[in-house]
Design a protein that fits this description.
single chain; about 400 residues; alpha+beta; Heat Shock Protein 90; 2 domains; 5-stranded mixed sheet; 11 helices; 5 strands; rod-shaped
């Protein structure tokens, strides 16, 4: 059974050319044989017409067309014969291999080869002369040769399709890699932007609120000074980030990124910003060796301290804010503690992106981080951010 579909345009052309060519040869009286049982000239047109009609099915039902075409070619041997009928049959064999099922593509060449060998041996036994070899050669040209040609073309077509699919897959993987790279770069930019600007904007928000709510010239003057200082610093950080992006971002970052040497200035700035909130910020660097660490580790540690100080400025109750650095083995420990609880005075809202950014930085380095409240020594609660950063090689893990 086969589905009836509209014939392909090329198949229609092949059928028309085959039929018209056969009729033309018939009108000229050119036949392939004589002295057949059905010797009337018009009988030759019957298998010719059948084979021409089967050409319309060479793509949609190639195996069915080949079976019926074989019967038509056999019947043509009982007529005067037509060269066009033979040529159309060879095309049906070729099409059955090219457009048929994989099983048919394997079976037809073997079958046609066996038929060629069988015909040759049979006619040799019958004629007992060299003419039998010519019949075998013709049989091979009509059946085995187009089958082998179909196998070759089909293999090339399948190879081209495989190459196309591989190219599509490669393009898809490249697009996925590009998309992941874009997402990773956007995440990196978001972390940098948040960590650089949030600290300054938090200080500006708190001190501007204090300046507006407290009617004291000295307090307002001090708050405005802090606001100006943080505005200038934030603008400088933004300019640095924009410069990194214009220079290629990742390639330019290590040389311009903050290091642990800048923690003194960072804590001092936090101490100034947090003075009006009752916070005292201190830095305890108890590392035995204070040499430079891998650039990604120092950048991550700096940003973790910066974000922790920003969160303390926003949310911590009055009391000490302690930043502690320790190098145990090949792990840099960053520990920031502050008093956990409510506090009076203005507060800046939080977005939650800071903790996410810290976890992303630590994860990229293969470290660990905790941020939670725990009991303090004097019965109060403290908020502790503790990050452990491996410093074996400082290689960022994607």
């Amino acid at each position: 059974m086969f589905s009836v579909t509209r014939p392909h345009r090329d198949d229609v052309i092949i059928a028309a050319v085959g039929l018209l060519g056969g009729v033309f040869l018939w009108l000229l009286g050119l036949h392939t044989q004589a002295g057949r049982p059905f010797d009337a000239p018009w009988v030759t047109l019957v298998p010719l017409s059948v084979l021409a009609g089967l050409e319309l099915l060479r793509r949609s039902a190639p195996q069915t067309a080949l079976i019926i075409g074989t019967l038509a070619l056999v019947s043509d041997q009982f007529t005067r014969g037509n060269l066009a009928s033979v040529l159309m049959f060879t095309d049906l064999v070729y099409a059955a291999v090219l457009y048929g099922t994989p099983a048919a593509a394997r079976r037809i060449p073997v079958t046609s080869f066996l038929i060629t060998v069988g015909v040759t041996i049979g006619f040799l036994a019958w004629f007992r002369n060299a003419e039998a070899l010519l019949i075998g050669i013709v049989t091979g040209l009509v059946s085995f040769a187009p089958a082998i040609t179909g196998v070759s073309v089909r293999n090339h077509r399948d190879a081209a399709e495989t190459a196309r699919l591989r190219a599509d897959q490669t393009a898809l993987l490249a697009e996925m890699d590009r998309a992941q790279a874009v997402v990773a770069e956007r995440s990196r930019m978001a972390r940098e932007l948040h960590d650089m600007v949030a600290n300054h904007l938090s200080a500006i928000a708190i001190h501007s609120t204090a300046a507006l709510s407290i009617d004291d010239p000295e307090t307002s003057r001090g708050a405005l000074g802090v606001i100006r200082e943080n505005s200038v610093a934030g603008l400088a950080e933004m300019r640095r980030l924009i410069g990194l992006l214009r220079q290629g971002g990742a390639d330019a970052e290590p040389s311009a990124a903050p290091t642990l040497k800048g923690l003194d200035a960072l804590v001092e700035q936090a101490r100034t910003n947090a003075a009006s909130s009752g916070l005292t910020c201190t830095l305890e660097d108890i590392r035995e060796e204070s040499g430079a660490l891998p650039a990604p580790v120092e950048l991550a540690a700096y940003r973790i301290v910066q974000e922790s100080l920003t969160n303390a400025l926003k949310h911590a109750a009055p009391g000490p804010v302690v930043v502690r650095l320790e190098l145990t083995g090949r792990v840099l420990v960053v520990d920031v503690t502050s008093v956990f609880g409510d506090r009076p005075g203005p507060r800046a809202p939080g977005s939650g992106a800071g903790l996410v950014g810290m976890r992303e930085r630590v994860t990229l380095l293969g470290g660990s981080i905790t941020a939670e409240a725990e009991p303090g020594a004097d019965g109060t609660k403290i908020w502790r951010v503790r990050a452990e950063l491996p410093v074996e090689d400082g290689v960022v893990r994607e």
